[in-house]
Amino acid sequence: MKKKMRSVICVILSLMLLLTACGGSKSEEKSKKDASKGDTPTIRVGVSWHEMQSVNVTVWGEYMKKFGEEKGPEYGVNFEWIEVVGDATPVQEASNIQDLINQQVDIMVVWCNNAETIGESIQKAQDAGSKVVTLDHQDAGKIADAHVGQDTLDQSIVASEALADILEKDGVKDAKAIELFGSLGDPNSVNRSEGWKQVEEERKLWTTVTTVPTEWKTENFKSGLSNALAANPDAEVLYIASDFAFSAVQSALEEAGRWKKRGEEGHMYICTQDVLPQAYEAFVAGYIDSGVPFDNIAHAEKVVEVVADLYLGNPVEKENWVKSPAVTADNIETEASVWARDYLDYE
Fold first, then answer.
1. 272-325 residue pLDDT tens
2. Whole-number pLDDT of residue 21
3. How many CB atoms lie within 10 A of CB 207?
4. Last residue of a domain, one of 278, 293, 308
5. 268/301 same-domain check
6. Dihedrals phi, psi of 271, to nearest 5 degrees
7. Is 61 part of a structural domain of the chain?
8. CATH number of the domain enclosing 193
9. Taking the chain, what is the end-to-end CA distance rounded to the nearest angstrom?
10. Which ranges carry the Periplasmic binding protein domain (predicted)?
11. Residue 58 in 3-state DSSP?
């Protein structure tokens, strides 16, 4: 009797487990349907920002959502954006990406802190079934499914050529130049320096007498430039790897008596990269002579297109580079890629 009772109980338990499994499957299907609007599939996009202090992140984020809404119908998809923010350390970044893996996002967009260390996290995401798009900072091993970024070599060449044209127009020759360099660990810094050197060699209008490493620290922009000006008081040209710290540059020039507009005696000819809000007003006022925007809006549009194509299985370029035109006093207030004019409150 006891043996028969055990058999009955086993059968009942087996039926209960089977019903639970079927119910779970239906629940998962319902969850997937709920994630889409009607019959339109929804791409769950996990975005990992290594920090949120930069206005670049604000512009990228706002325009990715904007272009997602605009281009969704074109691709026949909806976009759901799931953002995680780090503290500018690789450890937190790895933890955040693991969080996105746990959430089973379809595609990841990663603005990484360190191009050398991000590869392990990218591989984990891919092993879990997510496609990965790197933004701005490309992983050293180039294992991400796609990359979107500014062509920073072209950026520096275009800006430097524009400055060379201005120097020729003003009759400046054999000028001494100071270069404010970014960081050796940042490929964008290296590209920008190489572009500057290339135009220097080709146009032969200036000679860089000192290169100041800043490691992208605001205080180094000021102290480095102050020391360089003290050692080279007759320098006439300044090349800046990025103008996010332009207030520090301005301070150093003011203290050295070199904060002069073009056409004024003692003017320091300035070629800059990015044309961020911190430098926009000085550019308009005539203190900065040439530059090329870091076109976050174009980056955001390309990210949306790449994400949609990856999800749909369409062909995607491994590297997607954005190029921007030169900006001078003639077009600083009208050039479409200069988004800084709309974000001056973020200085």
1. 999 999 999 999 999 999 999 999 999 999 999 999 999 999 999 999 999 999
2. 41
3. 11
4. 293
5. no
6. -115, 125
7. yes
8. 3.40.50.2300
9. 83
10. 60-313
11. helix
CB neighbour list of residue 130: distance below 8 Å, 6 or more residues apart: 46, 100, 101, 104, 105, 106, 107, 108
175 burial type by CB count under 10 A (0-12 exposed, 13-18 middle, 19+ buried): middle
Handedness of CA 238, 242, 243, 248 (dihedral sign): negative
For residues 105 and 42, is the Cβ–Cβ distance under 8 A? Answer: no
Residue 39's pLDDT is: 87
- State whether residue 113 is helix, strand or coil: coil
Rounded Cα–Cα distance for residues 148 and 167 (Å):
33
Measure the CA–CA gap between 11 and 87, rounded to whole angstroms: 54
If you search the block for the tokens 């404010």, which residue do you land on?
180
Examine the domain organization and report whether 168 and 287 are in the same domain. Answer: yes
Q: What is the pLDDT of residues 150-161, one digit of tens each?
A: 999 999 999 999
Same domain, 196 and 79: no
Confidence of residue 33 (pLDDT cuts 50, 70, 90): very low
Instruction: Give residue 309's identity as a one-letter amino acid code.
Output: D
User: For residue 28, is pLDDT > 90?
Assistant: no
Nearest Cα to 113, choosing from 92, 83, 143? 92
| Residue type for position 92 | Q
* Structure-block tokens of residue 246: 């332009």
Among 21-25, 41-45, 134-138, the least confident range: 21-25
Domain identity same for 180 and 225: yes
DSSP code of 130? Answer: -
